[in-house]
Amino acid sequence: MVLSKFVDELPIPPMLRPVWRRGGQSYYEVRMTQFRQSLHRDLPETVVWGYNGSTPGPTIEVESGESAYIHWINDLPEKHLLPIDHTVHGAHHDVPDVRTVVHVHGASVEWESDGYPEAWFTRGFQQVGPYFRKQVYHYDNFDRACTLWYHDHALGITRLNVYAGLAGFYLIRSEQERQLNLPSGEYDIPLMIQDKTLKSDGSLYYPDQPDKPVPGLKTSIVPEFFGETITVNGKVHPFLKVEPRKYRFRLLNAANARFFRLQLNSGQLMYQIATDGGLMEQPVGVRSITLSPAERAEVIIDFTNMEGRDVVMTNSAPAPFPTGDMPDGGTAVVMQFRVNRPLQHIDTSVIPATLSEVPKLLPQNAMMERFLTLDHHLDHYGREVMLLDNKHWDAAITENPRLGATEIWTVINTTPDAHPIHLHLVNFQILDRRNFDVASFQKTGIVTYTGESEPPAPQERGWKDTVIANPGQVTRIIMTFGPYSGLFVWHCHILEHEDYEMMRPFVVII
């Protein structure tokens, strides 16, 4: 379906107020419900799921070091909005169809509050998963100022719950960040970018079979889902009226599987100031930004002296990435900025020459290097199944770093796709990427490099929690495990891959 572009104004997610805040502590209540929301002017309202009556959910904003408690409440109906494949791990007929658990993506948090995939719960907590420990999650927010996001993480149906609308922003602020005099207040805007397919009645479409249907299954998981149109903050191809001044945008790829390569059709630079884990050491001027699912980048766009101009943000990333089909009319355009608001006051915000120190983690300080493969197989139905280190979700845990230990994880991608690899609990730094001979490795188990080591791109040189592992490359990351011990997960953030076995637990031991 072809939908008109730039006919709906960009919604800004509301800010969630705490029930109470005192003495460096705060308490929130967040309710998951089903409701109707307009995604485009020319369509009937869409039945969606969301937090506190909106998708994206309300933005939660806390101070670095603030101790926040959040009561996540499932008030969803018993019937799922989208088709469930009961052959997928964790989604068999022995569990309720509608179950949720919330993960604050990028947060360093105790494992009981991390949103472990089997810590799910149903409406009113009538049924809970085997790893459910508490109704009220506790976030210490030890992180630096950064853009995080919260989303559902229930085992076997994460792709459906997030696509239905269960996602929102979680921002951590700090005094150090405020002293930089970056664009702030109404000039600091989060942008959640997703792809959707909408039917003529406005309802969400999600396939119940892959392109080649699976005999004997009424509903089957698909290898990846790519929608026909782009939404930003829950609107299809919206526009934003801006003043001729600097703005800070928090870009989030919240799509199931689609990568975005974002540019401005004006050709102007975007000044990237932050990665997943917060501010970089200095701004980087870029003409395009590639974001895999779950990655974030904060940018400053300067509309000064552009009165009367319209600037369009475009997307040029193939799907699947990096060798799939190029975007078409519905997916090559993201949104429009209209520089038609009068300047309210002189813009005194700045793009600082230096932002924040990012201490380098040194490979010589690593206590261990783990070699972990990304693998592609076929299941007994002939469907793609992606694995981490050739192991299924319920295999014995093999990654058990010690609390406080620095490790290098060397990720060997033998598949034809790029995978966004996400680790819970920790931020890491990218060391390098290097081409290798995949066919030789699959025969011998020995990595034979075919190119020189490539350092991370300038816009990746900060704290990260999600890294693009390119096909035919070895990607090395380094991190220190802590400050919590316990049970966490690492996985591909293509949600269809995550739901179908490309996720593994790890345990931080004392």
UniProtKB/TrEMBL annotation:
Q: Which domain of life is it from?
A: Bacteria
Q: Which Gene3D superfamilies match?
A: Cupredoxins - blue copper proteins (2.60.40.420)
The regions listed as transmembrane in this protein's record are none
- Give the residues annotated as coiled coil: none
Cited SUPFAM superfamilies: Cupredoxins
Q: Which residues form the Plastocyanin-like domain?
A: 45-83, 99-176, 229-312, 389-508
Family, similarity comment: Belongs to the multicopper oxidase family.
Name of protein: Multicopper oxidase family protein
**Protein source organism:** Fictibacillus iocasae
